[in-house]
Amino acid sequence: MVRRHTVTPLLVGTLILRANSGASTIVLGLLLAHMAASTAHKITSVQVGLLPVAFYISELTLAPFMGGLSDRWGRRIFLVLGPVFGLLQAGLLFFTPAHQPLPYLLSLQVLAGLSGAITVPAVLGYLADLTVRDQSRRVRVMSLYELVTSGGIAVGTVMGGLLWFWFGRGAFVWLAVSYILVIWCMWLSPVANQAVSSERKIGETARRYLRILRMPRLLAFLPAWLCISALVGIWLSSQLTFILSTPVRYPHQLLMGSMSGPGGGRMLSLVLGGIVLFFSLSLLFWAFFLQKIARLRLMFTSIIGVYLACIALFGINHRGASDTTMIYVWLPLLLIGVFAETSFAPAALAYLADISEEAARDRGMVMGLYSIFLGLGQILGNGLGGMFAHRFGFDGLIYLTALLALVALFSLFWLFKKGEGYSDDKSIYASE
């Protein structure tokens, strides 16, 4: 009897991996705050901000090469090796020195970026390999991947504070141990059929990558993917938390500092936790009920959702403090917008996997673009979000979101217009 391929071990491993990532971020922030309060050495927010920069630079630089190596050597070795580096990074965080910790932590962030660069392209390439003959299953699997990613980060964010409360610095030991479970899950993942690329020199690999980047369908799609990834950096980062809890108020902007003061932190956790839960349930819906809808149609739907959410947030932000009736209009509109927005990520991942069919031997390199543009988007969204928020307050995040959605919309229209010229059986290997 042939063993049925299942993605369950890999998805469970990804869930634990993302939970570790979310918890590690929280525990590290609490550790730095504790060190800043208990030592003479000053730790500034600028220094703390350098840590994700080091992580993303490391991941963005190495992900394409690791994706290419997974095409050459097979996925399984990378599925297992990535969490090993994560285990090493989490364990070494326990030994963070009290004096001048920044150089030590920056080096560990580079190690964490290496772990992500090894793992993510291999995971996405594996999922694309596993669903190569079942397109409807591909959308479902990619949606589940997004679900365990967002759900894992949400669980880790909650667990991070509890681990610090219970174990203090020892929380890093527990996180390191949990990576053993990730390694075990990745090892249990069944072998998927893969068109492994031939041995190539570095120069030839670089030329192959340039040819992949010049694929018309990919070039037309990348601006949309970058802009939507930037929205993740705007709304799922510390920027939103800071704006909602800051004591600074803006005239006629109700949401600025709306959750500051006594009890504000608890209210903030409840609100953001509810949004993450609704976001995850929406992904689950797209995964199981709408897998037969065209990829581009789903992505257009997500852009409409972005603008509905912008309208709702602007209405909530500018309603009078005594006006309680309009909230019953704006809140449902916001939920509808968020629900529609969530269709982009699974559709985009499935579309990227579709594109990889044109370069089947380099599928890991193509799927490695996920990490690259997600990281670039995070940097773009956080950087521009800070500037827009500084100038316009909460409205600045809405303005920037609308602007990025417009760029994404033009990209999708261009892709739709040129779609007739993109043959499904077209391959960059056709001339070889």
From TrEMBL:
Ranges that cross the membrane: 45-65, 77-98, 110-132, 144-167, 173-197, 218-244, 264-289, 296-316, 328-353, 365-384, 396-416
Is GTP-binding one of the keywords? no
**What PROSITE patterns does UniProt report for this protein, alphabetically?**
MFS, SUGAR_TRANSPORT_1
**Residues covered by the Major facilitator superfamily (MFS) profile domain:** 6-420
Record keywords: Cell membrane included? Answer: yes
Alphabetically ordered keywords of this record: Cell membrane, Membrane, Transmembrane, Transmembrane helix, Transport
- Listed Gene3D superfamilies: MFS general substrate transporter like domains
UniProt topology in membrane: Multi-pass membrane protein
Designated name of the protein: Major facilitator superfamily (MFS) profile domain-containing protein
**Organism of derivation:** Dictyobacter halimunensis
* InterPro entries assigned: MFS (IPR011701), MFS_dom (IPR020846), MFS_trans_sf (IPR036259), MFS_Transporters (IPR050171), Sugar_transporter_CS (IPR005829)
